[in-house]
Amino acid sequence: MTPLRRRMLEDMAVRNCAKRTQESYTLCVQKFAQHFGKSPELLGPEEIRLYQIYLTRERKVAFSTLNCIVAALRFLYRVTLRVSWPVETIPYARKERKLSVVLSPEEVSQFFRAIPSPKYRALLAIAYGGGLRISELTGLRATDIDSKRQVIRVRSGKGHKDRYVMLSPRLLELVRAYWKAEHPKGGLLFPGAIAGQPLDASAIQRVCQRAARACGLKKRITPHTLRHCFATHLLEAGTDLRTIQVLMGHTSLQTTAVYLHVSNMASTETTSPLDRLESFPGLAARP
Q: What does pTM read for this prediction?
């Protein structure tokens, strides 16, 4: 390990950056250095500009990947190397706005009926019934299920924040049925194949894919899809955005407000101007 890499890791650890963030940032910096065959200490704004052009024109990387690289380089040059030039001039890619895939309540029921395993049915039911991220699901412990208070404790969510989400009677019933059937050992609620280790995220993704195919749904379904459904269905049921923000663990209300675009409330509860016309060619006149 180079001294620069060690120093950057130390800087991220001091700032309590998540382990996944540390791994991602160091990999981005490593690839940047390899592209030019030089240490980042010998590179600057012009090389960063050329690298971004290469990534967008030749590699055609996604905006999220490009922005991860920008964040890594900004951290390196601002915090670890403390350069004199303005690091903020490294531009982020313009964010694409794509609406999340959302299932109808009927499609959610159809999806869950296609999951034969009590373990995965309970796990994914928590994703939908509590809005948990996949990393939060795999980190759940049996002691996080508080049946008396009817809540689930989510430990060290995104940004190292704990929160509580609802534990509905139906969800508790599913978790208890799974517990009685499999009696998981080691403290984790959903342990992986190796004792004491959490489930691999890819295994959960595969379960989602198989269930979607089995029930004939054409939509791409992931654990995060169920999290989106949680927020969208709450919004459509009349839950206010602030409450949904707390349950989702969002820092900003603006992040939660995205679900206003996904919800069908605006499109189904608003009358189209076409329907307000007294007459229209090819259509019967309004009564």
A: 0.72
Q: Can you give the residue range of the structural domain that contains 140? A: 105-267
| 118-130 vs 201-214: helix crossing angle, rounded to 10 | 90
Q: Which of 119, 121, 163, 250 is catalytic?
A: 250
Between 81-95, 152-166, 259-273, the lowest mean confidence (pLDDT) is in 259-273
CATH code, 12? 1.10.150.130
Answer yes or no: is 188 within a domain: yes
The string of DSSP letters for 139-171 reads T-BGGGEETTTTEEEE-S-TTS--EEEE--HHH
Q: Residue 37 domain-assigned? A: yes
Distance, CA of 18 to chain centre:
15
Q: Determine whether 228 is an active site residue.
A: no
Which entry of 163, 227, 228, 233 is annotated as an active-site residue? Answer: 227
CB atoms within 10 A of CB 155: 14
Instruction: Give residue-wise pLDDT tens across range 247-268.
Output: 999 888 887 887 777 666 655 6
> Among residues 35, 158, 164, 210, which one is catalytic?
158
Residue after which a domain boundary falls, among 55, 89, 123: 89
